[in-house]
Write a sequence for this structure.
C-alpha cells in the first residue's frame, strides 16, 4: 500500500458520508476525515484496493452484506463505561423503581448499548433494588461486533472503576489465570439481558413496551430530521408515564415530541 491511501478525496468522502447516513443515520462532519481513513485503512489493505472508491463499490454491491456490516461497525463510534452519567442511575433507583406498580415487572431498553457496560449497569441496579421481583432489560446496537463483545460480559479490570464495590463483589467475577486482569459479569445476570441488532434509523421490529429507554450519547451523530424520526419511533414503544433518558450533552430542542422534561436529560411520556 502506498501513502496515497492515507488521503481521501472530497468526492469519496461525500460518498462515504451519504453511505453511513443512509445506513445508520449518522452525519459525518468533514472533520471526521482522519477518523474515516484510520478506521477503513485495514479493509482497503485486506482487499488490496488503492482508493476508497473501490471499497465503496464493494460494500454497496449485491451479495456483500458481511463487508457492509464490517464497514458500519468500523464507522460507528462505540464509547461507553459502567454507570456513565450517574444521575440517571440515581433517578432510576430513587424515582422509577419505588413508584413502579407492584407485581408488574420493569422493562428497560438500552438502545445503542455499544459494548454492554450500560445494560449491565442497569441490570445490576434492578437486581439489587428489586430483590428478586421481575425485571427485563433489552440491549440493542447496530454494530454486530460490539454486540458480540457485550454478550460475553468480559471487561478489563480498569473498566470497573465506576462499579459500586457492593455490585462488583455481588455481580462480577475476578479473572484468574489466562483471564487475570479481567472481570466477568455473572452468568445469571447475563442470562437476564436480551441483546438484539437493531438499526434505530429504520422501522423498529416487534419489541413490546418499555418503562424506561436509555438513548444516550448517540443522537449527537444525527441531524435534526433523523433525531425526530428516532424519537418518534421510541416514543411509540414507551409506556404511558415511561421515561426516556438522553445524554447530558444532548437535547430534544427543535424536535416535536410528546414528552415532558422532568430533569436534565430525562423526559417522561405524557
Amino acid at each position: 500500500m502506498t501513502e496515497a491511501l492515507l488521503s481521501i478525496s472530497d468526492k469519496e468522502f461525500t460518498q462515504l458520508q451519504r453511505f453511513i447516513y443512509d445506513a445508520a443515520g449518522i452525519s459525518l462532519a468533514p472533520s471526521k476525515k482522519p477518523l474515516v481513513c484510520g478506521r477503513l485503512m485495514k479493509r482497503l489493505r485486506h482487499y488490496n484496493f488503492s482508493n476508497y472508491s473501490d471499497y465503496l463499490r464493494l460494500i454497496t454491491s449485491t451479495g456483500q452484506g458481511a463487508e457492509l456490516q464490517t464497514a458500519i461497525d468500523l464507522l460507528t463510534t462505540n464509547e461507553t463505561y459502567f454507570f456513565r452519567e450517574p444521575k440517571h442511575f440515581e433517578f432510576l433507583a430513587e424515582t422509577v423503581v419505588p413508584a413502579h406498580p407492584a407485581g408488574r415487572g420493569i422493562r428497560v431498553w438500552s438502545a445503542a448499548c455499544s459494548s454492554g457496560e450500560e445494560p449491565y449497569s442497569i441490570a445490576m441496579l434492578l437486581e439489587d433494588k428489586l430483590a428478586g421481583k421481575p425485571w427485563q432489560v433489552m440491549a440493542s446496537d447496530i454494530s454486530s461486533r460490539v454486540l458480540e463483545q457485550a454478550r460475553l460480559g468480559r471487561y478489563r479490570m480498569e473498566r470497573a472503576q465506576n462499579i459500586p464495590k457492593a455490585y462488583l463483589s455481588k455481580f462480577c467475577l475476578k479473572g484468574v489465570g489466562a483471564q487475570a486482569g479481567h472481570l466477568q459479569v455473572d452468568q445469571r445476570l447475563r442470562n437476564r439481558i436480551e441483546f438484539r441488532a437493531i438499526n434505530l434509523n429504520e422501522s423498529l421490529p416487534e419489541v413490546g413496551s418499555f418503562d424506561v429507554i436509555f438513548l444516550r450519547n448517540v443522537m449527537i451523530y444525527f441531524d435534526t430530521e433523523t433525531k425526530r424520526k428516532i424519537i418518534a419511533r421510541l416514543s411509540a414503544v414507551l409506556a404511558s408515564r415511561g421515561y426516556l433518558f438522553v445524554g447530558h450533552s444532548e437535547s430534544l430542542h427543535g424536535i416535536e415530541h410528546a414528552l415532558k422534561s422532568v430533569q436534565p436529560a430525562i423526559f417522561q411520556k405524557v
